[in-house]
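Hi everyone, sorry if this is the wrong subforum. Our group has a chain we'd like a structural model of before ordering constructs, and none of us has done structure prediction before. Sequence below.
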Amino acid sequence: MGHSLIKGRLGLPYDAKDAAMAIYQYRCHRDGIIDVRRPIGTAPPRYTCPTCAGEAVRVFSAPMLSLASRPVVAAIDRAEKSRDSPEMVSTLPRRPGPTHSLGGQVDPALMRLPRP
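Answer:
Right subforum, don't worry. Here is the predicted structure as tokens:
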């Protein structure tokens, strides 16, 4: 029986047995960045490069931010900004005028209607 692939939170398929796995990055002087999949919290500070067998040191990067859509990133940025400096207004928004006006004047028949 093969591994069952399911869609994760971002819509990307992943193996159910890898749900508690993370991708850690290491930098090898010769081969550059190496992605290593390990259980969460088990990443050592150094890793042996699988290509050249040299020592690679762990690097830290922003977690999967490039997978989010532009509207999501914009919403996150607005929420972060409003936490420290909320948007301020200097005046109240204008109330919409009567949409039933005739030449700029309110119909007198409408004035007799009950108000909420």
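For your construct planning: The first helix runs from residue 70 to 84. Residues 5-83 form a domain with the Rubrerythrin, domain 2 fold (CATH 2.20.28).
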